[in-house]
Specification:
There is one protein chain. By secondary structure, the chain is an alpha+beta fold. The longest helix is centred in the middle third of the chain and has 32 residues. Strands 1-2-7-4 form a four-stranded mixed beta sheet. Strands 3-11-8 form a three-stranded antiparallel beta sheet. Bound molecules: protoporphyrin IX containing FE. Its main location: endoplasmic reticulum. One of its GO terms (cellular component) is endoplasmic reticulum membrane.
């Protein structure tokens, strides 16, 4: 019980039950409710895991910029598919993280991130998406599976030279895993992450309380998928002709064979591939749900964007990144989607690697640090009328030029672990959104009201509800 006591001068927070603490915060709205009660910095404990939540943009930015907050908490490595659980980018730490992040950034850049041949690849997917949506012939459909395949195809071509058909069964299998992980991360099943002692329970009891052995099953299945892809690359590997990020890694791994301290390892490669799959496709796929939901909910913006596009892009040509200066509202719309949705409502957690101080409060070594992105994106100190969906906030006074947010925007995190795929994600969101607007009117079915602000939380994502929408081809 003594160990569970709040440290002295710890940030304020709700009453904690001895040993147990409190259940993890389930969604953005509960986080915001707690902010109103306890202020911009709050302390919260689940089992032995103490977290500090940051609700203010400036405090969060300053904190995440510091070296001592560049680690992730240990519990993230539970879902690592690296045998040693130390490699990869999203959940790794120290020299392993630095090494693997540098490798990924260098290779994503070499493979086209921010360059025009990547734009060509994205527009091939955008065109395929348009054709796929046309096949529904104006029928009301749930968010289509093709959203996930086009997002996966971009990152998977860079990582593994693979492009799937938009209705591929294989993608279905891979995505079943993602959905499973998302369910695990919601509610009860996530408790063993915060309270590791629960993992010591006999497996029958564990299964009965938390569902089956979800984390172990997930790791096994993901490892099988990734190992298959990497093994195939090792078989076909040609040192003079590296095809993709996996080949580049194999090249570095072979060149450093025999070196004592080389960090190029098969386990780390597996984890990098798994990280890029989840971070690189699932995010864009789910953000596209927000895009079409908000297009259907605010058709007046769709109409104005169509007018901008029609004025500069003939219907038989896809929108390109060069058109951006003529399409300020399209860019403003996608950035407002990122702000308004606050899809990753809490940033990927960090951990304090030493005893330290935030805003005058004591934060002990090992404390998890969470940034409440939803609260920051809806903070009236940084945004006028923050709950209003209002793309114009990112236009200049003459409404002819996009202006990037200066403060209060946190969609891609911040500091040394800021999202490595931000540039790629922004390219995809702009081009996929423009393609949909150029070719379709997105609408709810007749008589269906989608204007209720009722969102769902699955795992670490805040999403629009499952709405059937109509994609009516424009004449
Ligand atoms: C709309 C799309 C996306 C959103 C909203 C998003 C958001 C985020 C956020 C909030 C973080 C945590 C940053 C932090 O700790 O401060 C992150 C990390 C990361 N993202 Fe993204 N992301 C997106 C797309 C992508 C894409 C396309 C890639 C593919 C390359 C990617 C790769 C990563 C990786 C590897 C990390 C871990 C970075 C590290 O720990 O060093 N993300 N992302």
């Amino acid at each position: 019980v003594l160990r569970d006591r709040r440290p002295r001068n710890c940030p304020p927070g709700p009453v904690e039950i001895p040993f147990f603490g409190r259940l993890p915060i389930p969604n953005a709205e509960v986080g915001e409710h707690l902010r109103k009660k306890y202020g911009d910095i709050m302390s919260y404990r689940t089992g032995p895991t103490r977290s500090v939540f940051l609700f203010d943009y400036n405090t969060a930015r300053e904190t995440l910029a510091k070296m001592e907050f560049s680690n992730r908490p240990d519990f993230i490595s539970v879902i690592s598919i690296d045998d040693q659980k130390i490699g990869g980018v999203v959940g790794s730490n120290g020299v392993h993280w630095q090494h693997d992040r540098r490798f990924v950034l260098r290779n994503l850049r070499n493979l086209g991130m921010g360059k025009c041949y990547l734009e060509v690849a994205i527009n091939i997917e955008a065109k395929a998406l348009v054709e796929d949506l046309k096949k529904y012939g104006g029928e009301a459909i749930n968010y289509p599976d093709s959203f996930r395949t086009v997002a996966l195809n971009i990152i998977w071509q860079m990582v593994a030279s693979t492009r799937y058909d938009l209705r591929s069964e294989e993608v279905e299998t891979i995505y079943r895993l993602t959905e499973k992980l998302r369910r695990i991360l919601t509610g009860w099943s996530s408790l063993p992450l915060f309270i590791p002692a629960l993992n010591k329970l006999p497996s029958s009891i564990k299964s009965a309380i938390f569902g089956d052995d979800v984390f172990r099953n997930f790791v096994e299945e993901m490892k099988n998928i990734v190992s298959g892809v990497v093994d195939k690359h090792l078989e076909d590997y040609d040192p003079d002709n590296p095809r993709d990020l996996i080949d580049e890694y194999i090249k570095d791994m072979k060149e450093s064979e025999g070196e004592d301290n080389s960090l190029f390892r098969r386990g780390a490669l597996n984890q990098i591939v798994s990280d890029l799959f989840f971070a690189g496709s699932d995010t864009v796929y789910n953000m596209m749900k927000w895009v079409v939901y908000l297009l259907a909910r605010y058709p007046e913006y769709a109409t104005r964007m169509q007018q901008q596009i029609d004025a500069v892009v003939p219907r038989d040509r896809m929108v390109s990144l060069d058109d951006k200066p003529s399409l300020p509202l399209v860019e403003a719309f996608t950035v407002e989607v990122l702000r308004y949705s606050a899809m990753t409502f809490f940033n990927v957690p960090r951990a304090a690697d030493s005893d330290t101080i935030i805003d005058g409060f004591f934060v002990a070594k090992g404390t998890t640090v969470e940034v409440a992105i939803y609260s920051i994106h809806h903070d009236p100190r940084y945004w006028d009328d923050p709950h209003k969906f209002y793309p114009e906030r990112f236009l200049d006074n003459s409404a002819t030029k996009y202006t990037a947010p200066k403060q209060g925007f946190f969609a891609f995190g911040s500091g040394r672990r800021q999202c490595v795929g931000e540039l790629l994600a922004r390219m995809e969101l702009f081009l996929f959104t423009a393609a949909i607007i150029q070719h379709f009117e997105v609408r709810p079915p007749h008589g269906v009201d989608i204007s209720r602000d009722k969102y769902v939380t699955t795992g670490n994502f805040r999403l629009p509800p499952d709405n059937k929408l109509i994609y009516k081809p424009r004449i």
